Amino acid sequence: METLKRSVREPFFARLHFIPRVVIRYPQRALVRVFRRYFERAPGWVLLTTTGRKTGLPREVLLPCERFADGLLIISTYGRRSDWMRNIARDPRVSVTCAGWRLPARAEIIDDLERKQALVTQHPFHAPAPMIPFHLIFLTVLRPLTVAVLCRWVTHRPVVVIRRAAASFEESRT
Which CATH superfamily is domain 2-166 in? Predict the structure, then answer.
């Protein structure tokens, strides 16, 4: 019971969510608009489109991620206070734009601490350094340190696993 209670507690950064909501929202939109083609293909990044829980309109956000064969992994810095997290909780159907593809997908929010730690151990990533040379260093030489930091980081944060939904090939190519 203690493990479950610890994993659900909000991270400290969740209390600071008003900062990115006010300060980062518009610069991020401009950044994505200007560098869209880069972020659509950049390793370590995904453009996630959710359905707005209040408006029903598509909402796009740029997030660091780790891609793996069956999908991708995202860690929510601000816990469940992020709009994209709230949208997923309401409607797990999303679309992702990564590696030059736009695909329909389904998101699963994971709160179980053991499962989160197993996921980041199996699929570690270093969000601040998505460039390939840094990524390789963190996944090889510094892998034990990266995994230890990620296991601690996910203690109070939900992890989102996104897996591709069934769709025809013609619909998914951008």
Answer: Electron Transport, Fmn-binding Protein; Chain A (2.30.110.10)
Q: Where are the domains of the chain?
A: 2-166
Tens of pLDDT, residue by residue over 22-51, are 777 788 888 888 988 888 888 778 999 999
Q: How does DSSP assign the chain, residue by residue? A: -HHHHHHHSPPGGGGGTHHIIIIIHHHHHHHHHHHHHHHHH-TTEEEEEEE-TTT--EEEEEEE-EEETTEEEEE-TTGGGSHHHHHHHH--EEEEEETTEEEEEEEEEE--HHHHHHHHHHS---TT--SHHHHHHHHTTTHHHHHHHHHHHGGGS-EEEEEEPP--HHHHB-
* CA distances in angstroms from 58 to 23, 36, 48, 68, 153, listed in the order given: 21, 17, 10, 25, 29
> Residue 174 pLDDT more than 50?
no
Q: What is the pTM of this model?
A: 0.76
C-alpha 161/C-alpha 67 separation (Å) is 10
